[in-house]
Specification:
- By secondary structure, this protein is an alpha/beta fold.
- It has a single domain, classed as TIM Barrel.
- Helix content is about 35%, strand content about 10%.
- The chain has a 10-stranded mixed sheet.
- Helix 3 runs parallel beside helix 4 and helix 6 crosses helix 7.
Length: about 400
């Protein structure tokens, strides 16, 4: 699961009639499809982003990467549309998630929204919100996007900026949220919970309430891609997450906020049932709820946090590639069979799988058996905790940055 992505059952329950009408998605004909059913596809429109978020899971945070070169290709827009059309022709897709990079930094977002309207497929957008203008918000309202998810990582410019790469992004993001709301665009909020901001969850939820946003994804930091280098500084502990959910519970239980924890919390780390009605889930890879990810360079991956191309296919535009066969590749169908050795005797292993497998691969390596989620492993393995401690000390020596 993407650390910034909510899975909202009944997202628009409780909206005004006008907002509900604007969020209605054109229904496709109710006919049997011979195409394999896929719950969702995340389309990473661009490798470019105007922010420098410390928790970013994109593996392409570097101008020399293949994905950056693809983004700079004059034909990138045509290729993006061609790849998406191929996916939609091969698969029966529930909805699209348009992400990046920053999807609103590229004009190709409008091409994709035209395509979703043409094919009657719902689309939601994950954005940092800082580039939203009145014109952009009006166009999003016109396309009836399911929602735009925006992240606030603290109630102040200092705390949000520490995570997003600069304090100026705080006010820009707030302006974007208010502009979306003014144009009637449904908004979902997100907070990436880290070691640095876990104690500010209540204040951040207060801010979201003041902005009129009641759908919130509390997504614990999960080190993948660029964020691996920030793991020692940002990886929350068990105590951090208990504090975060303790602060969030009254908002969900007493104040009507609909809050989901969108990254796995292994049940051996925390008893999540005591935090009802906050929603908790597990990694969806290999299940009917999986969201596959298409990168800017054309790789189809198991999710946005994974870097490896399914089947080793570097670009699905290759005429020899059958997309319907890719989603039944052994990397998908046998993914959940690679249970970490530490988890083998656990009753929760079939559903939990040891937590976030992508973060485990990035931090601890891959092998015949998956490693446990670093969020769990930091409390179990002395060597791994010592490694994080060394990295923390090096970060302090470099003035808090690495």
């Amino acid at each position: 699961m993407n650390p910034e992505r909510p899975a909202w059952p009944g997202l628009f329950r409780g909206l005004s009639a006008g907002s509900a009408r604007r969020s209605v998605i054109q229904l496709r004909p109710m006919v049997e499809s011979s195409r394999p059913r896929v719950h969702s596809l995340a389309i990473e429109l661009t490798a470019h982003c105007n922010q420098q978020c410390a928790y970013c899971y994109n593996a392409w945070r570097g101008e020399g990467t293949t994905d950056h070169r693809q983004t700079s290709d004059p034909q990138s827009g045509e290729k993006l549309l061609a790849r998406t059309r191929k996916l939609l022709a091969s698969l029966d897709v529930g909805h699209l998630t348009l992400t990046g990079g920053e999807p609103l930094s590229t004009p190709h977002v409008w091409d994709l929204l035209e395509l979703t309207s043409e094919q009657g497929i719902g689309a939601q957008i994950i954005s940092n919100g800082s580039l939203v203008t009145k014109t952009i918000a009006k166009r999003l309202a016109h396309h009836q996007v399911r929602y735009v998810q925006v992240t606030l990582n603290g109630p102040t410019a200092a705390l949000h900026g520490e995570h997003a790469g600069g304090e100026a992004y705080f006010e820009a993001t707030l302006r974007g949220i208010r502009t979306l709301a003014d144009q009637g665009v449904p908004i979902a909020g997100c907070m990436v919970v880290t070691h640095k901001n876990a104690g500010a969850v209540a204040e951040t939820l207060d801010l979201w309430q003041s902005l009129g946003v009641a759908q919130i994804a509390l997504s614990r930091f999960s080190p993948a891609g660029h964020a691996v280098a920030q793991a020692a500084r940002l990886l929350p502990s068990r105590g951090d997450m208990i504090e975060a959910f303790d602060q969030a519970l009254p908002f969900a239980r007493d104040q009507g906020m609909r809050i989901n924890a969108t990254m796995p919390i292994p049940p051996c780390v925390m008893e999540t049932e005591v935090y009802a009605p906050i929603g908790f889930g597990h990694c969806a890879i290999g299940t009917t709820m999986q969201e596959f990810a298409l990168g800017p360079g054309g790789k189809l991956r198991n999710c946005t946090l994974h870097d490896r191309a399914i089947g080793g296919v570097s670009d699905i535009l290759d005429p020899s590639v059958a997309v319907a066969e890719l989603i039944t590749d052994v990397e998908v169908t046998r993914y959940r069979s690679k249970i970490p050795e530490f988890c083998e005797d656990c009753l929760h292993a079939p559903s939990c799988g040891g937590g976030c497998g992508a973060a485990a691969n990035w931090m601890l390596g891959d092998g015949p058996k998956r490693q446990p989620d670093p969020f769990l492993w930091q409390h179990i393995d002395d060597d791994f905790e010592a490694r994080l401690a060394v990295q923390r000390s090096e970060t302090v020596e470099h003035g808090g940055k690495k």
